Fold this sequence. Notes:
mainly alpha, Herpes Virus-1, two-stranded antiparallel sheet, Znf_RING/FYVE/PHD
Amino acid sequence: xxxxxxxxxxxxxxxxxxxxxxxxxxxxxxxxxxxxxxxxxxxxxxxxxxxxxxxxxxxxxxxxxxxxxxxxxxxxxxxxxxxxxxxxxxxxxxxxxxxxxxxxxxxxxxxxxxxxxxxxxxxxxxxxxxxxxxxxxxxxxxxxxxxxxxxxxxxxxxxxxxxxxxxxxxxxxxxxxxxxxxxxxxxxxxxxxxxxxxxxxxxxxxxxx
Length: 209
C-alpha cells in the first residue's frame, strides 16, 4: 500500500502525486489539469472536494506543495534505483504481477483496482521466464534464417560468377572463330586475286600468238 507520507501528496481527484497543484480559495489543492477537467465537466467553478465556489478562474500554483511533491518523487526514485525490484509508481508496492490484458507489470493493489477489473494476471517471474524462452527461440530462428540467407547469397554469387565465366568463354570462342573466318576470307581473297592476275597474263600471251 502507499505510505501515509505519499497520501499527503496525492491529488484528491486523480489520487496520484500532485502535478502542478493549484491552491483554491477554500484552501484545498488540486492538480491544475484535474481542476480544469472537473470544471469543464461540471460547468461550474467549484472545489472538487468541498464544492465551495471559487471566485478565481485561474487559481495560483501551490509552489510549496509543488516543491514538496518534486522532492518526494526524487527521493522515491532514488530509493527505487537502489533496490533490486521495481516499484509501482501509483501504489509504491513491488511489481510482482503481470497484467496479460494491458501487457504491463502490476502490484497487488493494482490487482484489486478498478482499472484492472476482470483482467488476467500471472506472477511476473513466470512471465519473465516465458519471455526469456521466447526470446531464446526467436534468436535461434533468426540465426537459422541468417544462415539460410547467407547460403543463398553464396549460391547466388557462385552462380553469377559461373555465368560470367561461361559468358567470357563463349565470347572468346566467338572471337577466335571470327578471327579464323577472317583469315580464311583473306586467304581466299588473295587466291582469287592471284587467279585473276594469272588469267589476265594468259589472255595477253594468247593475243600475242
